């Protein structure tokens, strides 16, 4: 039995848990991003489609293919920038 005035035994401190490593975040896609990727793929595939038809000697397809391939990316950038501006303003 212990004497009432004696000191209690020392308590061992619990060492802190090691810090967890950095958590790797998975990439997230929103609806706008998926729509933009779909639009880019559809414009590219339509240009290739018209180019293949032009190689089959169908009349007028060579000009259509060139328009889609050359002017398509610029038109796509204009449309995407307008959509982003509208979403920032009203979204």
UniProtKB/TrEMBL annotation:
Q: Where are the transmembrane segments?
A: 31-52, 64-87
Tell me the domain of life: Bacteria
Return the Pro residues bias intervals: 7-21
In residue numbers, the region (Disordered) covers 1-21
Question: Keyword annotations for this protein?
Answer: Membrane, Transmembrane, Transmembrane helix
Q: What is this protein called?
A: Uncharacterized protein
Q: What's the source species for this entry? A: Anatilimnocola aggregata
